[in-house]
TrEMBL record:
The lineage of its organism: Archaea, Methanobacteriati, Methanobacteriota, Stenosarchaea group, Halobacteria. Residues 208-276 are annotated as: Disordered. Residues 236-247, 258-271 have a biased composition (Acidic residues). Pfam families: TFIIB (PF00382). The keyword Transcription regulation applies. This is Transcription initiation factor TFIIB, Brf1 subunit/Transcription initiation factor TFIIB. GO terms for biological process: transcription preinitiation complex assembly. It comes from Halapricum desulfuricans. Keywords: Transcription, Transcription regulation. GO terms for cellular component: transcription preinitiation complex.
Length: 588
């Protein structure tokens, strides 16, 4: 197992290599998280930690669709080592083992290989494949994060093939065909090529020699270096429409009234936008998550206006609304469920939104996203927020980050107690042990926050230890049970505690605290009367008769249990039973 010094060395090497290769910070960060996850795996522990680090970085770069080869990483990493170097072959030999240990579904293909494969499947000229690779490399040089930010390296490969073919007027690489061979969608390819076109500049793509095919031979034009990215147009306020589709612009010009002509209303003006909105929802689904913002982005329209259109479509049955955590998802009317991939996308959005709200660092966020993929297949999208919150809570606990369930719940539209159910689901589905905080831990926190007497803290812990719920009792979260036991202990000890204070300090709902209090009281009182608890060794029995616990406390069942316990204690103490207790016992 590597020691701390070796791990620190690899961390520094990773940082140096990422900077040398101009890799996005997100790629380096997920590699760090993965190296921590690998730990001491038997399949890889005999390998050099530097080779493991280089191989993991290469896998992460491939997953992000970055045009970085194994040799690129090996050469850059070797520069950080003294007296030795990394053989690219040693890295490729480790690919399968590391991918398996990281639960990566197969070794991702190298991005250039994807371009070659898709070009072959579409029977595109070899020259177009070469130009597509150049476009990918230049886009990476211009802005690595734009490449890494794609959710689909295959979509990026399709996009650069589309651009290469479009620049050279070559048929066979339309959106539909590329969507099919890349196993994404025409929408994904379209969005990606527009993003890359805007990054490099449309004029730059059309006029730069390295993107052209020789008209006589069909071979790529010779090139000695990548284009100067500074020559790409800089977007300004005046250029906001420069990226418009020329065909759409020509159509708009043709349809616009001539100078001096009055504008006339089109009978379809009101219905057309709504129909276009429905078409986009249908086009996006099931390859992408049709959220309001995503549909608005596709139509280059105001999200509020699109939301109104979508509501209209829901009313007439064309579209169905699904709630995905804090986000509305719009499905075509004949579909009422999302597949696992889109549900995972919805949960990941919730993870990111909550992490942003709580300002959690990237390692926690990435850890949470990794947990989600293990359980999402059987999850309904309506629970996206709860699962996302639970995954973050688990990630915080594993990484020793002090965040409570109540803090996570406060950022979303779900109750804190729901997170504990999902924590159990995660714990049973993943191989990682998720630390748990028991009710006793929360008692200590409540005692500190509310400055409770030590005797109340001790009695609360003892009550939790003695608590024996009946089979039909509901289960309570650790904060709820801790707060309920504290109410019991404070009351029997004659110390007042406000329910609202307990709720605020524990993050538990007051109603569930009251229910937990009743459950604890019934359990302890009946166990005392049944003599399952030793009267002499049960500290609270001496205070019971003088305490504010009475038959009027809690619900009717709780009151009856208290009455029984008081009558029993009175007999043990040779004291008379008070009238209220007698009334409760005889049903008056």
């Amino acid at each position: 197992m590597p020691n701390a010094a070796e791990r620190d060395d690899v961390e520094q090497q990773l940082t140096t290599v990422a900077e040398a290769l101009s890799l996005p910070s997100s790629t380096a960060q997920i590699t760090r998280v993965r190296l921590n996850q690998l730990g001491s795996e038997p399949e890889i522990e005999d390998s050099s930690l530097s080779i493991v680090g280089a191989t993991t970085l290469s896998l992460s770069a491939r997953e992000d669709g970055l045009p970085i080869t194994v040799s690129d990483v090996a050469e850059a990493w070797s520069e950080t080592l003294e007296g030795t170097s990394i053989d690219p072959g040693a890295m490729t030999a480790l690919f399968d083992d590391i991918a398996a240990n990281l639960d990566i579904d197969g070794v991702p293909p190298e991005p250039r290989a994807l371009i070659e494969r898709f070009g072959t499947e579409l029977d595109l000229p070899d020259g177009i494949v070469v130009v597509a690779k150049r476009i990918l490399e230049d886009a990476f040089e211009a802005d690595p994060q734009t490449i890494a930010g794609s959710t689909s390296p295959a979509g990026t490969a399709g996009a650069v093939l589309y651009l290469a073919a479009a620049v050279n007027d070559v048929d066979g690489a339309d959106e539909d065909a590329l969507g099919d061979v890349t196993d994404t969608s025409q929408v994904t390819v379209r969005n990606r090529y527009k993003e890359l076109r805007d990054l490099l500049g449309e004029q730059h793509l059309e006029t730069t020699q390295r993107y052209q095919l020789d008209p006589d031979t069909g071979a790529p034009m010779a090139t000695s270096s990548a284009p100067d990215t500074e020559s790409a147009p800089v977007e300004t306020a005046d250029d906001e429409t420069s990226g418009e589709d020329p065909e759409a612009t020509d159509k708009a010009s043709a349809d616009a009234p001539g100078e001096g002509e009055p504008e006339t209303a089109n009978a379809d003006d009101e219905s057309t936008p709504t129909a276009e909105t429905a078409e986009v929802v249908t086009a996006l689904f099931p390859d992408e998550l049709p959220t309001t913002d995503r549909v608005a982005e596709e139509l280059a329209a105001d999200p509020e206006a699109i939301a109104a259109d979508l509501e209209t479509l829901v009313a007439d049955g064309t579209v169905e609304r699904k709630r995905a955590g804090s986000t509305d998802v719009w499905l075509p009317g004949d579909r009422d469920a999302l597949g696992p991939d889109l549900t995972e996308d919805a949960v990941q959005r919730e993870v990111d939104a909550i992490a942003d709200e709580l300002d959690l660092d990237a390692s926690v966020r990435l850890f949470a996203r990794g947990l989600v993929s293990d359980v999402v297949e059987a999850v309904d999208v309506e629970h996206a927020g709860e699962l996302g919150g639970a995954a973050l809570l688990a990630a915080c606990r594993v990484n020793d980050v002090d965040v409570e369930a109540s803090e996570i719940a406060a950022t979303g539209e779900f109750a804190a107690r729901a997170l504990y159910d999902w924590l159990e689901t995660l714990d049973s589905a993943v191989d990682i042990e998720i630390p748990t905080a028991g009710a006793e831990t929360y008692v200590d926190r409540l005692a500190d926050v509310l400055d409770l007497d030590e005797s109340v803290r001790e009695e609360s812990v003892r009550a939790i230890e003695q608590y024996d719920p009946r089979p039909d009792d509901p289960s309570y979260t650790p904060p709820e049970l801790a707060a309920g036991a504290t109410v019991f202990a404070a009351t029997v000890r004659g110390t007042g505690v406000e329910l609202e204070q307990l709720a605020e300090a524990s993050g538990a709902d007051p109603a569930f605290i009251s229910e937990a209090t009743d459950s604890v009281l019934v359990s302890l009182c009946l166990d005392l009367v049944r003599e399952d608890l030793d009267y002499e060794e049960t500290g609270w029995t001496g205070d019971l008769l003088e305490s504010e616990l009475s038959p009027e406390f809690g619900d009717s069942e709780t009151g009856a249990a208290i009455a029984l316990a008081k009558a029993y204690a009175a007999g043990r103490e040779s004291q008379p039973v008070d009238e209220a207790t007698i009334d409760a016992l005889v049903g008056r």
